[in-house]
Amino acid sequence: MYFCILYFMKFLFYIIFLCLGFQVKAQFVNDSLSLNSAKAFNIDELNNIYIIQQDNSLVVYNLNGNIIATYQNIQDGDLSIVDARNPLKVLLYFPDFSKLIFLDRMMSIKSEISLNDFGFFNVNNVALSSDGKIWLFDEDRQQLIKIDELGNFLYKSDDIRSLIRQHLNPIGIVESDGMVYIINKDSGVYVFDLYANYLNHIILDNYRTLQVYHDILLYAQGNDLKIYQLKDGVTKSINFSSNQKFIDAKIGKGYLFLLFENYLQLIDLK
User: Fold this and answer.
1) What distances in angstroms separate CA 197 from CA 141, 163, 178, 180, one per listed residue?
2) Backbone phi and psi for residue 84, each to the nearest 5 degrees, phi listed first
3) Quick check: 223 and 241 in contact, CB under 8 A?
4) pTM metric for this prediction
5) Distance CA 67, CA 63 (A)
């Protein structure tokens, strides 16, 4: 039965990613990586995998499933975000203390920032920009803001409430291909340019994670993986009917990564 499910999943991925323009060789790489307590993950440009565990430790694996680095912080509360777009400057965020920690590729601390010191007291979401600066969403000001590591304002949006007549409580921020996306669970995705100017709104309902990959949005909704094409608004869906909870998915260079409750699955897209 297990192998029948895997075969069916391969077939679904083949059809969907072929429609999205990928050349797909639906082959599982090393089957899967067993995990005990993962709650979130991210990947870097080298396809290294950053797993946030329930105890707030961070474990980094390579594609062979080998642990290449670890980090643990028990002083700053919940580790909610790891942004590994630059493996030489990995961003961690601890919202309980509004604390940013930057790590090098060996998970040694490069620098630390308290957003409270810069006058930000209600920030739950941050992200690295392509130039190494910091995007954040200030929930008190209701503004998307870009700062440097000294707290200097670089760009900021108008008050979101004046733009869309709505108060946002985002679950994430993503910069990709010259755009910044505010991910709001209840009402969808809000798109800004790199100068924090509001552009448009993409309506998505009841989702919990999202990755922007070129011209698609990849997101988790219940036990479904959703693939939304920005160019035409078409959404495709894959359902994981198993007793393993589906948590998140990411597309890396040539691979699709699927995080379930107790394991990480890799699918070769080359």
Assistant:
1) 15, 10, 12, 9
2) -115, 30
3) yes
4) 0.87
5) 10
pLDDT of residue 169: 92
Nearest of 179, 226, 187, 220 to residue 204 by alpha carbon: 187
Looking at residue 245, the DSSP 8-state letter turns out to be P
List, in sequence order, every beta strand (DSSP E) within 35-184.
38-43, 49-53, 58-61, 67-71, 81-83, 90-94, 99-103, 109-114, 123-128, 134-138, 143-147, 153-156, 172-176, 179-184
User: Is residue 149 helix, strand or coil?
Assistant: coil
**Identity of the residue numbered 65:** G
Other Cβ atoms within 10 Å of 212 Cβ, number: 22
242-249: long-range pairs with CB below 8 Å, 24+: 242/5, 246/220, 247/38, 247/39, 247/40, 247/41, 247/209, 247/220, 248/40, 248/41, 248/209, 248/220, 249/209, 249/211, 249/218, 249/220, 249/225
pLDDT per position as a tens digit, 36-80: 889 999 999 999 999 999 999 999 999 988 999 999 998 999 999
- Amino acid in position 6: L
Query: Residue 75 corresponds to which tokens in the numbers above?
Result: 């002083």
Q: Distance between CA atoms of 123 and 188, rounded to whole angstroms?
A: 19
